[in-house]
Design brief:
By secondary structure, this protein is α/β, with parallel strands linked by helices. It is built from 13 helices and 9 strands. Helix 5 packs across helix 12 and helix 10 packs antiparallel against helix 11.
Length: 388
């Protein structure tokens, strides 16, 4: 795999060359620059850097790596983000392309990049990632090199290590449920198992080994009090047994839960029903408009090109590949039900036995709409990334 996105400290990555986001003058500043100088040896590196002198934004220079686990340091002077229309993109692209060119000239077989300019220089992270991928992939079409894109921001990452135990538990849980259904299919021939608890989610009664429910006592219903409405069971998609109907609300039971369906919910449901026959493209545009998002917000968060999004928007019959469809779900900040619905319109489903799908679902359910974080998690689990 010529491109890998990893979470690490770039000063600890073993590669032929490490790219440093350099100061234009022969001195170092905060951020990655400071970390590189301190790890390499400040005095030695500064002495070498002074021989080079001033470097313009977008230009690069190369020095020895000294104490770093690399042969070279490529010093790339990145632009400070102003408004997106002051030449920042051209200069940022030059940082990547010039670094790759000089690395190839020096015989490098591997290069590690930070996500240039997205830290203290305030370049939007998703846009910075898209530019990095454009330039790296364009270079790799004609060159054989291993390129690492190193994301390291322990304090600022949306996921952070504190959620990783939850991710592992989530993966394990989904596999357990899936295997439970496989092993006990004779009890649940229709595969409708409620949270592996042994209750059929449609009939709400445990089955005996022959699959019969006639002699099994149903769980006792409990009326809940208070103004809140219990959540739907996350493994089901239907509700039944209306109990009470008033002018403005309808109250339903579901298993042990009682919940209220308001006029507002009914209106939203009616609107959703009007889009039952929508294609993938039509339903995506509908959801984007419903959430009052701009197209640019969506395609930038999804890290897809403006050109691809325009192609989708202009073609009601557009059929994306699954990875693109999933990225657009992230871009539009869809919840898990909206995600499943949109994917189904392109003929896809989230599989309970596919770790990639499970990890993706974890991020959607935790409302971490960040393609970079998702890809880092996939990479760390040895799975194919969405962004290539």
């Amino acid at each position: 795999m010529p491109l890998k996105i990893i979470r690490n400290d770039i000063t600890k990555v073993s590669a032929d060359a490490i790219v440093n986001t350099a100061n234009p003058e022969p001195k170092y500043s905060y951020g990655t620059d400071t970390a590189v100088y301190k790890a390499a040896g400040e005095e030695e590196l500064l002495k070498e850097r002074r021989k080079i002198g001033h470097i313009n934004e977008g230009d690069v220079a190369i020095t020895s790596a000294f104490r770093l686990p690399a042969k070279y340091i490529i010093h790339a002077v990145s632009p400070r983000y102003i408004d997106g229309s002051s030449g920042e993109e051209e200069k940022l692209r030059a940082c990547y392309s010039n670094s790759l060119k000089i690395g190839a000239q020096y015989g490098c077989k591997s290069i590690a990049f930070p996500l240039i300019a997205t830290g203290s220089f305030s370049y939007p992270k998703e846009e910075g990632m898209r530019i990095a991928l454009d330039e790296i992939n364009a270079f790799l079409m004609n060159q054989d090199m291993l390129v690492y894109l190193v994301v390291f921001d322990g304090a600022a990452t949306k996921l952070g290590m504190n959620l990783y135990p939850d991710l592992e538990a989530y993966i394990d849980h989904n596999y357990v449920c899936h295997k439970y259904q496989e092993e006990y299919q004779y009890l649940y021939p229709d595969n409708r198992v409620n949270n592996c608890c042994g209750f059929d989610v449609y009939n709400r009664k445990p089955k005996d080994k022959e699959g019969s429910q006639e002699n099994v006592k149903a769980p006792e219903r409990k009326m809940r009090t208070g103004s809140f409405a219990p959540r739907f069971n996350k493994y089901s998609s239907v509700c039944d047994n209306p109990m009470m109907v008033s002018e403005n609300t309808a109250t339903y039971s579901y298993g042990d839960d009682i919940y209220t369906f308001s006029e507002k919910n009914q209106s939203a449901l009616n609107e959703r029903m009007e889009h039952l026959s929508d294609t993938f493209q039509q339903y995506l545009i509908y959801l984007i408009n419903t959430k009052h998002m701009t197209n640019a917000e969506v395609y930038k968060r999804a890290i897809v090109t403006k050109q691809l999004f325009s192609k989708i928007k202009l073609n009601p019959g557009y059929h994306p590949d699954k990875a693109t469809a999933m990225r657009l779900c992230v871009g539009a900040k869809l919840n898990i039900d909206e995600t499943k619905d949109l994917l189904a319109r392109a003929g896809y489903a989230l599989s309970p036995c596919d770790k990639r799908d499970i990890i993706f679902s974890f991020f959607i359910e935790h409302e971490v709409f960040d393609m970079i974080e998702i890809d880092i998690a996939l990479e760390e689990h040895g799975l194919p990334c969405f962004i290539e």
